[in-house]
From TrEMBL:
It comes from the Bacteria. GO terms for molecular function: hydrolase activity, acting on carbon-nitrogen (but not peptide) bonds, in cyclic amides. GO terms for cellular component: cytosol. CDD domains: D-aminoacylase (cd01297). This is N-acyl-D-amino acid deacylase. Residues 49-507 form the Amidohydrolase domain. The lineage of its organism: Bacteria, Bacillati, Actinomycetota, Actinomycetes, Kitasatosporales.
Length: 526
């Protein structure tokens, strides 16, 4: 054996009660599990190295089902933001916008569109264009944690149709089908959408259904950020359930919550909708983060018509006083589709990051009104990120208890003052919602963060502590594990997670990041 963890409290990811055991690793896999009190003659394993795990929980590594580390994994090999949380696998390509598949034009446009999520990419060598080439780049460079990828439907539409708000032609739809199929053949695990982000939101249901049929052919899943988390949220959820049922496609609902004042206390209605669909045979799962504020870009709250033609066309509209007044009218009086159909409440919007360092004094401040927002959008060339304080704690708690719930950070690592979920989601679940609040039992919570997402990703040898499974493991102290990140200090690392391993190699050892780059791309298997 290479390594033995002695006297660990094993929470194996299945939801079953924990047990005390020695866990031995060899060649990157779990080679032996010897429970305390094993039958006579069952010898305790020995190895070249033995680690005393007394007082520690040993669990599968956590799977972040909603990550925005598409460039961060390449930019920052350390990637302690996730590794220190016990995360051993992230799912990228979220919300319908990422960097593959692209041509040169689309790459330039998507880099502009999501500068607020990932930076402008000026420090990245974009030496890929296809999904397979992007995954190859992750493997070639070496990454801190494993990564899976979703084909981003908004990028696909940008590539095939552009920024026009209209149905795709049959030829354009055929091209989108081919792009999605090629991405899945090259290893993507499914397809994402951002249906409050342009240009993905311009797609009608019939178009999305056709693309989901392609995803279903490859046994992947559809992960939509659906059309509203505010006004009409339940109808938007039902739309996704109906659409994927018609397409015969598995559904995973991204950051599935109920926000804004119109949805306070309405999580039970969402869960009843999902239970009915599950009882009818639909294949559904969801992810959430354990916080009430959301995080996005300031430009995202604008009405979709203002985005038509792309970022430069939007900037021109913002410069025009008459068009800017029309935008304000939609935002403040009608309810912009970019702001989930709810009239914007400026005092709920906090600036979390800017692209232009000269504007850094704005970070941490609330947006006072539309003139200030317009000025900032123009000065920062649409790159501003925000926190939206529009969530409800009772909704967060109700949804995280559901049997198809998984954990996702939705972690945007860009900006001077990012959302603390980027650095704290998984220890926040374990520390606050398990130990302090007892919303979930430890065994149940670990299952939400490990085996359930592994099952959605159809990973045959991850997500459980089982002999023969890959040794992607997290060891944490259940008495002290906690998120260190706060809204004031969002990049503070967690405490109480001394060891994290990928393929049996220490990524975090004795609470410190090693120089190991054990991650690789996790590709869809036929």
């Amino acid at each position: 054996m290479d390594l033995v963890f002695r006297d660990a409290e094993v929470v194996d990811g299945s939801g079953a009660p924990s047990y005390r055991a020695d866990v031995a690793l060899a060649d990157g896999r779990i080679a032996a599990i010897v429970k305390e009190g094993a039958a006579a003659g069952c010898r305790r394993p020995t190895a070249r190295r033995v680690v005393d795990a007394e007082g520690l929980v040993l669990s599968p590594g956590f799977i972040d089902m909603h990550a925005h580390s598409d460039l961060a994994l390449l930019r920052d090999p350390d990637h302690s933001a996730k590794a220190a949380q016990g995360v051993t696998l992230e799912v990228l390509g979220q919300d319908g916008l990422s960097y593959a598949p692209v041509d040169d034009r689309t790459l330039a446009e998507v880099r502009r569109a999501i500068t607020g999520w990932n930076g402008d990419g000026s420090d990245i060598d974009f030496d890929w264009r296809t999904v397979g080439e992007y995954l190859d780049r992750l493997d070639r460079q070496g990454i801190a944690v494993n990564a899976a990828y979703l084909v981003p439907q908004g990028t696909v539409r940008m590539y095939a149709v552009g920024w026009e708000d209209r149905p795709a032609t049959e030829a354009e739809l055929d091209r989108m089908r081919r792009l999605v199929a090629e991405g899945l053949e090259q290893g993507a695990v499914g397809m994402s959408s951002g249906l409050t982000y342009t240009p993905g939101m311009y797609a009608p249901d019939a178009e999305l259904t056709e693309l989901c049929r392609v995803v279903a052919e490859y046994d992947g899943y559809y992960c939509p950020h659906h059309r509203s988390y505010g006004a009409g949220a339940l109808e938007a959820y039902e739309e996704m359930v109906r659409l994927t049922r018609d397409a015969g496609c598995a559904l995973h609902l991204a950051h599935a919550t109920m926000n804004f004042g119109v949805n306070e206390g309405r999580a039970p209605e969402l869960l009843a909708l999902l239970d009915e669909a599950l009882a009818g045979g639909s294949d559904i799962s969801l992810d959430t983060y354990p916080y009430t504020p959301g995080c996005t870009t300031l430009v995202a709250v604008l009405p979709s018509w203002a985005h038509e033609g792309g970022p430069e066309a939007l900037l021109a509209r913002l410069r025009d006083d008459g068009t800017a007044e029309r935008i304000r009218h939609h935002l403040e009086e009608i309810g912009s589709d970019g702001c989930h159909g709810v009239p914007v409440e400026w005092d709920t919007i906090e600036i979390s990051g800017v692209t232009d360092p000269a504007l850094s004094a704005s970070v941490g401040r609330r947006v006072p009104d539309w003139p200030a927002a317009r000025e900032l959008l123009l000065a920062d060339r649409l790159g501003t990120t925000i926190l939206q304080h529009v969530g409800h704690e009772e909704n967060v708690r109700a949804i995280m208890r559901h049997r198809v719930h998984t954990g996702g950070s939705d972690g945007i690592l860009q900006g001077d003052k990012p959302h603390p979920r980027a650095y704290g989601t998984f220890p926040e679940y374990l520390g606050r919602y398990v130990r302090e609040e007892r919303v979930l039992s430890l065994e149940e919570c670990v299952a939400h963060l490990t085996s359930r997402p592994a099952a959605r990703l159809r990973l045959p040898d991850r997500g459980l502590v089982r002999e023969g499974y890959r040794a992607d493991l997290t060891l944490f102290d259940p008495a002290t594990v906690a998120a260190g990140s706060t809204y004031a200090s969002p990049r503070t690392l967690p405490v109480g997670i001394p060891h994290v391993l990928i393929d049996g190699r220490f990524v975090i050892e004795d609470g410190k990041r090693t120089d190991v780059l054990a991650g690789r791309s996790i590709r869809r298997t036929p």
